[in-house]
């Protein structure tokens, strides 16, 4: 220790040199990353400007034609609308539910420990299995309708996934069920940073629970809110597994998301160019969401 | 504020109801999986006459045992490679203040913005041209590559906050940079290694689209692809399907309930960066 404090200069320089000597430590990570992400992403983006079918040896440059197709194709506009609807609806509802549950299990109730464990459990469950499970729950003779009939609401029982207007909301319900526990956990981490004394002082000053939440707790939850919004927006944009399992994009394309449409076009219809254009559009949406989040976060810190 | 009042009691009742609503789908899953196909009793009620037949049939006809092994293999090999490669890459990237390391770091971060869908189509062709379709290696390679941005990001964040004193001391004692990394730095970053393992293991075990594209026509399926094929094959036999689904999610649920403290921590701490 003494030698190091006496001669800080040389030892520091030597350490730098030593770490620099292992620059090749980056190589395995970079090799896999470039092979599996960078090169195919760049190639994928370039396919978006061609009419390639994925098999034929020739592909023609078509400029922005594929992007125009997205907006003239009825499936394309429905998929975009669904993707945005899912992202917005899931983000709002999931975070409100997650926050309310977090406040509930951050209290003195005796079951708080077990409730946290149970409500987070769906987060780790395989999405494709979750989709199949809920496909049955929403079936005409499935669990949801059984419950409605059991409580005398027979009139509400219906074929949830067969109706174009309702099916998309059924998918939204599933995503909210699966990931509210995730929002809860992030909010709980934020709530644990709220000092008990401040809350007690506010209570002594006569602030009720709502006032205490709005004036004391909410400002301290700002980072948790930003992270939660970001996770649910990006998760909503990319949604694939649950839709694939529940409806395959049907009925009649009514529940397609951009992701399911990419899959259908590229791998079932042989429209590689069109699928690639949809993927580029998805990338732009994700990038916009991420840059908004980056601004919000730096505003909070600055 | 510290007492358990009647208000707390009401809140407790409401929260237990909320918990029950969240558990309802899993309750139905378990109940139906144990019901015989001909059982006409109300499906909301617990099974009076539970049977294991659905499970044995699902296990055999869905080849679920082999699929679980494949998923375990893919997850273990991928996560091991991810931990070693991303920790190693993060060491010079977080410690060397040169242009090349900053540039490389941001190159990795750019990957956080790229959705997998963009790389999906060209990667599929590359795998086909390399003759890797149907091989678990295709899924492993893609999993490792696409996990790099987030894992490198987590390790770099942790290493920047870690003072270099221990490595310096080791350097003074004559340890090589390689030795300093392996014997000093890697053990010190253990907390973030736990997070990297948990987040990647859950994601890779549950991954569906990539293995679906690469493995669905082969005999080497992961559990997500196997369950998709199984559901397609047994259409309306829901008792059988639910047994298969239950088998497929049981490993991850067991791991969760055994390690829930660490898993929840891993999910919460991985996001603070």
Automatic annotation (TrEMBL), chain A:
The gene is msmF. The chain crosses the membrane at residues 21-42, 84-105, 117-134, 166-189, 221-240, 272-292. GO terms for cellular component: plasma membrane. It is a multi-pass membrane protein. Gene3D superfamilies: MetI-like. Keywords: Cell membrane, Membrane, Transmembrane, Transmembrane helix, Transport. It comes from Cellulomonas soli. The keyword Transmembrane applies. Residues 80-293 form the ABC transmembrane type-1 domain. This is Sugar ABC transporter permease.
UniProtKB/TrEMBL annotation, chain B:
It is found in: Cell membrane. Residues 68-259 form the ABC transmembrane type-1 domain. Keywords: Cell membrane, Membrane, Transmembrane, Transmembrane helix, Transport. GO terms for cellular component: plasma membrane. It holds the Pfam family BPD_transp_1. InterPro entries: MetI-like, MetI-like_sf. The chain crosses the membrane at residues 12-34, 72-91, 103-124, 136-159, 180-205, 238-259. It comes from the Bacteria. Belongs to the binding-protein-dependent transport system permease family. This is Sugar ABC transporter permease. It comes from Cellulomonas soli.
